[in-house]
Amino acid sequence: MTAVAAPAALRPTARVRSRAWWVLPPLAVVGGFFLYPLALVAHQSLVERDGTTGFGVWARVVGSAEFRRAVWRTVEIALLSTAGCLVLGAFLAVVLAFVPFPGARAVSRLVDVVLAFPSFLVALAFTVLYGSAGVVNSALGGLATLDFVYSPAGLVLAEITFYTPFVMRPLLAAFAQVPAAQLEVAASLGARPWRVVREVLAPEALPALAAGGSLTLLLTLNEFGLVLFIGAKDVVTLPMLVYTKGVVTFDQPQACVIAVVQVALSVVVYALYRVAVRRRA
Amino acid sequence: MTIRLDRVSVHYGGVCALRDLSLEVGRGETVALLGPSGSGKSTALKAVAGFVRPSSGRMLLGGRDVTAEPPYRRGIGVVVQSYALFPHMRVAENVAFGLRARRLPRAEIATRVDEVLAMVGMSEHRRRLPRELSGGQQQRVAIARALAIRPPVLLLDEPLSALDAALRQDMLGELRRLRADLPDLAILYVTHDQTEALVLADRIAIMRDARLVDVGPSRDLYHRPPSTFTASFLGGANLIPAEVVTVSGRTATARVGDRTVTAACSDAATGPAVLCVRPHAVTVGEPGGVTGDALPGRVTAVQWRGPGYRLDVALDCGTAIRADVPALDGVPAPGGRAEVGVGAAVVVAAEGAAS
User: Which chain A residues are Cβ-neighbours of B76 within 8 angstroms?
Assistant: First the structure.
C-alpha cells in the first residue's frame, strides 16, 4: 500500500513544475514588455530633474490649470463620442439586423472593414471633405463656409465616425443570438415594434451594449492619432499633453505623471465595466 | 367562425412555402395541421399569426380581413416549440407582458396573471426565471402567457416536440383539460405527430409539399382516409395495390394478385386502387390458418417490441407490408410462409386515378 502511494504522492509536484514551465514565458513577456516599462514610468514620475525623488512633480502637474483642462477635455470628448457611438451604433445595428434592405450584408461587411482602418484615415477624410480647403467648401464656392472640423465638435464627430463600428459589431452579434420566435411572440402579445425593442431586445443586448460602450470609452480616452491629425483649436487631451511634455518640451517627469494618470483612468473605466458586466450576469 | 384562410399562398424568395391554402377553424374547435417537415404547416401558422405576409389570398379573423395587419393588432395567442420565454423576465412578468402591452390597469393585470398561472398550475413558480424551470414548466408558462390576453384564437406550433416522451403524454392530458376549460377558444395546432393530432383535434388537415391534401373530422380521416398519403401518414398504413372489381355502397370487392378481398371504401370506384391496412389491423397466421380475406406471403423479419411483435411480410403479389401482432399469438418464424388477414382494410383510389 505504501509502495503504491509514494510515487502517486510525487506526481502533483511534478505536475506543478511542468505547469510552471508553461506559465513562465507569458509571464516573462508581460513582465518585460508591459509591467517593467509601466513601473519605470511610475518611478520616473517621482524623480525631479535634479535626481531627487518625491511628489514634487505630481504636485506641480496636478496643481496646474493646463492639466486640469486636459483631464476635463479628455473626459468630455470621450463621453460625448461614446454617447454618440452608442446612439448611432444601436440605431444602425437595429436597422441592419431587423430591417431587411438590399445591400444590408454589404454594409455589415463594410463595418468590419472600418474596424481594421487606422483612425487617422477618418481624420484625413474629414479634412479632405470638410476642411477649409476641402471638397465641400470648394463646392460651396464661397456661398458659405463649413468650419467645424477644427473644433471640439469636429473631433467628436470624427471619433463617432471611427468608433461607431466598435459598438455595432458586438450588438449585431448579440442580436443574432436573440431567437426570432421571441420577437414574434412579443408582437403577437400586442407589443408594437418600439416596445419589443425596449423590453425584449434591449435587455438581452445590454451586456453587448455595455461591452461596446466601455471599449469605445477606453479607446476614446486614449485616442491620440485623431486628435493630433484633426489639430482642433483649444483641444488638448491627456495623450496630447503626454506627447507635448515628453517629445516637444522634453519634460520627462511631467509626461510620466500624466501617463500614470492616463493609465489609472483607463483602469478605473475598465473596472467599472467589469462591475457592470458582473451585475448583469 | 373565427379563423378563415382563403387561398393563402406564401413565397420565400422564389420558393413556394404554402400554396392556395383554404381552411376554417370555428369557435370552440381544434384543428390540427399535420404533415411532415417542409409541408408548409408552420408557414400556415405564421401566416395566421401575421409573422409572414401572404403573397396572395386573404386571412379573416371573426369575419375581419387581417391579411395586411401586423401581429400586434391581431390579438392571437401563440405558443411555439422553443417556448420563446423572455429570459430576463420572471414567470409572472412573462405572463403579464401582453397585458402591459395592452395597457391594462395594474390590478387587472395582477388578477389575470394569478388566474392563468393557477390554470396551468404554475402559481408557486411565479418569481422564478425561465432558466430555473424544467421544459414542461416553461411550456406551461408559455401557454399561460398566450392565454393571459384572452385571445379568441390560440396557435400552437409543435408545442410538445421539445419534451421527452413521458412529459409529452402528461402535457397532452393537460392540453385536453385546458381545451375543456376554454370552450370558446379556436385552436390551430401544428404538429408532425399523428397521436397529438388524434388526441386533441376535432378536425385534422393533412399537409404535404406546401399543399393541403385532406381535411376532415379526425375519426373519418383515420378510419376512412380519402387518399393514400393520408392513410400512410395518419396511422402508418400499409399500401397494397389492388383492382376494385365491384363497389356496393361503402363496401368494395378488390382483387390483389389471384385473391379477392372485401374492404370498406370511401370514394373509390372500380378500377386501379390501393388497399390501406394499418399494421395493428393485420393478422398473420400459418397458411390456411387465417379466417376471412387473406393474402399469401413470406415472413422476412421478426422484431420483438415488448407487448408484441413487428413482422415484415413480403406478399406474393410483390408488396412488402408490416404487421404488429400481440405477443400471445403464435409468431411465424422468419423465412416461413404465412397468410395475412386484411379484413379491416380500406380501399382508396390510387393516386392519379379518378375516384
Answer: 188
B84, closest residue in chain A (CA to CA): A182
DSSP string over chain A: -HHHHHHHHHHHHHHHHHHHHHHHHHHHHHIIIIIHHHHHHHHHTTB-TTS-BSSHHHHHHHH-HHHHHHHHHHHHHHHHHHHHHHHHHHHHHHHHHHS--TTHHHHHHHHHHHHHS-THHHHHHHHHHHSTTSHHHHHHTTS-----TTSHHHHHHHHHHHHHHHHHHHHHHHHHHS-HHHHHHHHHTT--HHHHIIIIIHHHHHHHHHHHHHHHHHHHHT--HHHHHH--TT---HHHHHHIIIIIS--HHHHHHHHHHHHHHHHHHHHHHHHHHHHH-
Separation in Å, CA of B156 to nearest CA in chain A: 11
Q: Which of A97, A174, A179 is closest to B84 using CA atoms?
A: A179
Contacts of A191 in chain B (CB under 8 A): 72, 97-98, 101
Arithmetic mean of pLDDT, A88-116? 85
ipTM: 0.85
Disruptive mutation site among A182, A184, A189 for chain B (greatest number of B CBs within 10 Å): A189
CA B325/CA B279 separation, integer angstroms = 8
Interface touch B78/A204, C-beta < 8 Å: no
Between chains, do A188 and B71 touch, taking CB under 8 Å as contact?
Answer: yes
For residue B144, the 8-state DSSP code is H
- Distance from the Cα of A176 to chain B's closest Cα (Å) equals 15
- Going from the first residue of chain B to its last (355 residues), give the mean pLDDT of each consecutive group of 10, the final group possibly shorter: 90 92 95 93 94 94 92 94 94 96 95 93 94 92 94 93 84 88 93 92 95 94 88 88 87 87 77 89 80 85 89 92 82 86 80 48
Q: For testing the chain B interface, which of A98, A177, A185, A199 should be mutated: the one with the most B CBs within 10 Å? A: A185
From B299, B296, B306, B295, select the one nearest B331 (Cα to Cα).
B299
Query: Number of C-alpha atoms within 13 angstroms, CB side, residue B20?
Result: 1
